[in-house]
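TL;DR need structure tokens for one chain.
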Amino acid sequence: MQLTKLLGGEFLANNAYAGSHVSYAGHYSACLPRRIRSLATEDATPDIILVYAGINDVAHSIDLDKFQRDYREMLDSLKKFHPDAQICGYHRCGQGV
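>> reply
TL;DR here they are.
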């Protein structure tokens, strides 16, 4: 957050939940629409969305096909609800994530 302030930005939301999954695995999934919508406030929408997700899916042996489907759904939902935001994953940054 220090860098955000230094660059004159505003931190809108930390949407991290311990133990959550990307996949619908009985936990608070990262692809749920209400979780994705909560990244914005009434007055502001995100310019950049940082995604660091999937570790809990791996740790709980979620099927790779299921994970890929749900990860793609999460990215599609992020783009749908926040079309102007740049989406950055821990592997790369850009609109084509």
